[in-house]
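## retry 2 of 3
previous attempt timed out at serialization; input unchanged, resubmitting
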Amino acid sequence: MAMNSGGRCVQADIAAGITPAAALFHSLSDETRLRIVARLARGEARVVDLTAELGLAQSTVSKHLACLRDCGLVDYRAEGRQSFYTLTRPELMDMLAATEALLAATGHAVALCPVSGPAVPATEPPVIA
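## retry succeeded, writing output
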């Protein structure tokens, strides 16, 4: 089952009334999953390839691949004892390209949206007004 950032299953979010579109965007709201998607856009990869290239733990990569598989965005083919992961939907790359164009057009203003708050680097404490 795909897990959201709160540890709940994305399918449970949909069952609770969240629209499928919101669930899709929620599944892509994690930076690690976006990095995995970007890497898989260049071609198939094994978990060991992703851990080496992205500098992530094997358990982290596996967890996020499971989420992306449950969402139908990634699949794998087995070859011997290895699994090669690929993107299943080319439309995903079109959507991400459109997202980049939107961010460029808005000057990345969405990152500073007052609803979600400004992006604060993890090394700085948040400013409390």
